[in-house]
Every structure is written in C-alpha cells, then in structure tokens.
Amino acid sequence: xxxxxxxxxxxxxxxxxxxxxxxxxxxxxxxxxxxxxxxxxxxxxxxxxxxxxxxxxxxxxxxxxxxxxxxxxxxxxxxxxxxxxxxxxxxxxxxxxxxxxxxxxxxxxxxxxxxxxxxxxxxxxxxxxxxxxxxxxxxxxxxxxxxxxxxxxxxxxxxxxxxxxxxxxxxx
Length: 172
Fold this sequence. Notes:
The chain is α+β, with helices and mostly antiparallel strands. It has helices spanning about 5-10, 30-35, 50-55, 55-60, 65-85, 90-100, 105-110, 160-170; strands spanning about 15-20, 25-30, 120-125, 130-140, 145-155. Strands 2-1-5-4-3 form a five-stranded antiparallel sheet, with helices on both faces.
C-alpha cells in the first residue's frame, strides 16, 4: 500500500475508511474502521469483507438487514469483476468457489447472476458496544491502482459520530 494512501485514511479521524481489492480483501484501514468494524488483530485470511459477511456469525448479527446486505455485496462483487475482466479471474474464482462451498446463502445469490453498481449509500449497523450506527458511505477508485477501491464511511448524525469517537477511545 502506498504510504500516501495510508496517510489519506489516517487523516479521517472519525470516519471509518478502508482500501479493498477487487476480491474485497481489506489491505489498509484507519483507526475508526478498526474500532467500528473490528479489523485489528485479524489474520490476513480473515480480512475479506465477503468472508466476514457470509461466514462470521458476529458480523452477520451486526447487519440490520443482513439479507439486503448479502444481496448487495454479491451483486457489487459481480460488477467489480466484470469491470476488472481477466485481471481478477483467478483470485475471484478461488474466492467464489470457497464461499459457495461454505455458505449456502452465498451460493444461491451467486447463481442469481445479479449485478449492481455501487458508489454511495447508507450503511446501518448494530454494533455490539455502540448500538445502532448509521453511516453514509462513498467508494472511490485509487488513481493508478485499478485493482483498489477506497471506501469512506461518514457518521450520519452527531450521535453516530460521538459513538465512533467513543469506540476509537476504547480501542486505544
């Protein structure tokens, strides 16, 4: 990860932000993202957003509407892979095979062939410590690195921002 990208992430003191690959592996994140999403201490093989959504029961419980989130991420993955073409074929096939093997829900959604563009929206979480959190998100391409996307989550209300700051304080 270029140091300039990590500096951009770190410049967002109360906005969880991360950088992910075409196959949704998290390769960089900031302190707010670690505090809200629990990335600190995860081994690299567990830093995949799709694996966490489909295979981690704690992550599943954090989603207010897991079914919608699951449909959305599978359709968005298809969109990412279609844009990437052959560049992502091999790692994507391995990820999809593994998720289909370990998650009936993923397998059913993958067979549905839905494709959905994304870029911005609102994410609602049921955080085990902070309670309900609402965050607007936006996705950005990383210039010169077509295999990377940056996701930035901004707390919707002052109360949400205060909850994020409290989580960061607890993580120190």
